[in-house]
């Protein structure tokens, strides 16, 4: 599920990569496994650094080049059990350490998703790190099938595979039909690669990146889904990580095809908090002078969209995507995203009244990504990764029962977070999901009101990783804290750890 932020010894490496490629236990295989023929060519490959810009319209490449970054394309096997077979490209970027005397090594970055491009992250993370960034080679990595890394596209006519079940049974049946169609399109266009789209293979690619960079260990900063990827990497490649920061922490036990179900209550509470904020600014937004009045406006928009899709400029927004506009806007309680959601609500309310409206730039970009082919590539990768990890066939009625049970307490969030996904119609994973049962020293960061990766999940990971420490941002509805929320306490804790590698003596509480 899309969880974007408001705002990741050489010989031993060969043995361990061989072990996980064969699907065996890392502990057992590290002793007995043999390197698959041809794997060394990936681990020992030369890195050809070059300019990042691909063309005049490549904004990301232009920004990276302007900052002095370089890019490269690494080669990895599609199937780690067949290293001599088909290959893929994994695109990486690098901002080199400018303090070589105190260089720590590479810091790999992941922006979450699943399916989120991360090539530009050295720019944003470098800004948050300040002078600490001088100690690291900041490495942005587009995971396999994402961004510039041999992208996957199923040719969908919508961008988001996450949407609400709608108001009633008819809407849910439409969701089922749409998700079945999405899965069938992906199977028809990409059946040969789908078995190899998984977090486990992305983690294996990370270790190829590590080896190609000439590092015995990597440091890692991952947000949201990137925290799950980081945990999987530590399980498959024990001893390969140095300093780890996981921000917006996913509990692997809750990583399922209905990944958002755990955040149902947090999203409902965030909606009410936003409504109260908006009501206090009625003179600006005219959406209601009380929180209940604002929520009544939102419910009116949803009912109108259920009766007939809203005309918003060139877009048609139905009952399945209106809640997604709110879900997307509730990832932060900062004034700017709250104001953007209030402005979008004014536009949708006028559309619900039958007025001609044109969306602002932010709403237009969001609707294009959600409801049109423009978002197909990222949506395809997102679904393929999640379903490639955990797809199971539960039966369509189980989703409807969960929606109806949850709707009573969480009328806004439950029809979206419990809704059926394309994973219901996906082929089963080629490998079982990784069981993360190690204990790794890491710095975990989470807000108590996180609407994507809940605080209770972060607590579970902290309890399992007894050598880790948890930085808690109390009282904030925020997904992605470090460098995003502007909290000096949390940012200082992360930077201090990255600077000297020493975790806090105990867990840290930061007020929002």
What report would you give on this structure?
The protein has helices at 10-21, 26-32, 40-43, 59-66, 121-129, 169-190, 199-212, 225-236, 264-279, 282-285, 291-307, 322-329, 335-352, 361-371, 376-390, 396-407, 414-417, 455-464, 488-500; strands at residues 70-77, 87-95, 105-110, 136-141, 218-223, 241-247, 310-312, 315-317, 443-447, 469-474, 508-511. It is an alpha/beta fold and 512 residues long. A nine-stranded mixed sheet has the order 1-2-4-3-5-6-9-10-11, sandwiched between helices. Strands 7-8 form a two-stranded antiparallel ribbon. The longest helix is centred in the middle third of the chain and has 22 residues, at 169-190. The chain is globular, with a radius of gyration of 22 Å. Mean pLDDT is 93; it is low at 6-36. It comes from Streptomyces durmitorensis. Keywords: Hydrolase, Signal. Belongs to the peptidase S33 family.
In short:
With 512 residues, this protein is α/β, with parallel strands linked by helices. The protein is 42% helix and 12% strand. The chain contains 19 helices and eleven strands.
